[in-house]
Amino acid sequence: MTRSFTGIPELREAYRLLTYIGVGAWLSISLHYPLAYGSTCHSKCMIENYWFSPQLLRHGSLMDYALFAWLWSMPAFVAGVVIWTKLRRRTPSRNPILPSNSSDPE
C-alpha cells in the first residue's frame, strides 16, 4: 500500500488533478499564452485558446509542445471515453444474472 502525504488515500486523486491543473497554469503563465500568440481575449476564452494552439507548434520549444499537449489532452480524453462507451455498449453483457437478448425460448 502506498502512503499519501496526508495519510488519506482518497486524496491521491485530488492531488493528481491539482498537479494536472498546476502544470497547465504554470506553462500558460510561463509562455504568456494566449496573449503572446495573437489572442486579444481576456475572459471566457476557451474556444480562442484552442484556436491559437497551432501557434504553439510553430514556435517549436519544448514548453510550447508541452502546453499544446496539455491543452489537447482533455478533449482527447473525453473523445476517447465517448468512443469507448459507444463500443462497450455494442458488446453483449457477460453478466450471468442479466437475461441475454437472444430469442431462445425456454
Task: Write a structural description.
The protein is an all-alpha fold and 106 residues long. It is 58% helix and 0% strand. It contains four helices and no strands. The protein has helices at residues 11-31, 46-51, 54-59, 62-90. Helix 1 (11-31) packs across helix 4. The protein is extended, with a radius of gyration of 22 Å. The chain starts with 10 loop residues before the first helix and ends in a 16-residue tail after the last helix.
What is the secondary structure topology, with strand pairs?
Blueprint: H1 11-31, H2 46-51, H3 54-59, H4 62-90
> How far is the N terminus from the C terminus?
49 Å
Give the overall pLDDT as a whole number.
Answer: 80
Weakly predicted, low-confidence segments: none
Instruction: Give the helix/strand class.
Output: mainly alpha
Quaternary status of these chains?
A: single chain
Main beta sheet strand tally, sense and closure = none
Helix content: 55-70%
Q: Indicate the proportion of strand residues.
A: under 5%
What characteristic shape results from the CA principal axes? extended
H/E topology pattern: HHHH
Q: What's the short story on this structure?
A:
With about 110 residues, the protein is mainly alpha-helical. The protein contains 4 helices and no strands.
